Amino acid sequence: MAFGDAGMSADLEDGTMNEINMTPLVDVMLVLLIIFIITVPVMKHAVNVDLPRANNQVQEQKPETVRLSVDAQGMYYWNEAKVEEASLVDLLRAEAAKNPQPDLHIRGDKDVRYERVAQAMASAQQAGLRKIGFITEPKH
Length: 140
Fold this sequence. Notes:
Layout: H1 9-14, H2 23-44, E1 65-70, E2 76-78, E3 81-83, H3 85-96, E4 103-108, H4 114-127, E5 132-134
Parallel strand pairs: 1-4, 4-5
Antiparallel strand pairs: 1-2, 2-3
Helix pairs in contact: 3-4
């Protein structure tokens, strides 16, 4: 007999064992305890960061939106009013000086040369406008 207990000989013949082997359970619990001992101090470390203060006041003035359109012939339109290229730069500088600065939305005809749209973008950048967007139509 492997266990040497005469009272258990009847149970061993059936192949059943009445006792739970505690060694694997104790091993697992010790490993978990060691893991928790190591990881808890690591989780307690914090980095001190001086966070900025935010205020939740409503913005008094909402920036306006300026629409600059370029038609198929390369002509510029400022809010649907035809504008010459020479006066476009002055209009862009005047808008860049405003506080808050308006958004510039560029609408380019699909048949216009890209050069005309790029010239408008370069003029807006040189004037100091920071918010430039493009208007396109969704593909159906």
